[in-house]
Amino acid sequence: MKAVRQQKIPLQDHFKGAHGISSVTSVHIKNSTSDHIEIHTTGGDGCICFFKYGRNAQKVEFFRMRQVKELGTIQSIYNNLASEEQLHSTYAIGFTSADFIIWDLENETKMAQISCGVPGAQELFVWTARLSHEVHSIRRG
Fold first, then answer.
1. Whole-prediction pTM value?
2. Example GO biological process term (predicted)?
């Protein structure tokens, strides 16, 4: 049996301050160019953090934060890649203490709200993102 040699890779950088003590719920690569990558993270603090990773400097830089007060936890960001005739929108998808919410970030409006805080019942959600956005709720229990 051949011995495997482990090599430590030095830490290049880190997401300093991303969402404080709250959990990071998703990481998205938004834009990528020859000199940098734009990264968005969502978290349990109801915020979206914006970072840039410089390819040449090999450094992650925090440059903006957006709080979505209507959401306690943001699980995901969805970009609607519409045709040229349709408007482009970006949605934050997440939860408050008792509701599942889809929030339109461009227009600052609630697109959908489904109660999920009913005692003794569990709600399963299926969200299909096509030309028309649909949210299906299935009650179990």
1. 0.68
2. tRNA methylation
The separation between the first and the last C-alpha atoms of the chain, rounded to the nearest angstrom, is 53
Q: Which of 38, 84, 79 is nearest to 62 (CA)?
A: 38
- Strand 73-80: give its sheet, edge to edge: 73-80, 89-95, 99-104, 109-115
The mean pLDDT value for 15-30 works out to 81
Q: Rounded to an integer, what distance in angstroms lies between the CA atom of residue 72 and that of residue 92? A: 11
- Distance CA(40)–CA(14), nearest Å, equals 14
pLDDT tens string 81-101: 655 555 568 899 998 888 899
Burial of 135 (0-12, 13-18, 19+ CB in 10 A): middle
Structure confidence at residue 122 (pLDDT)? 55
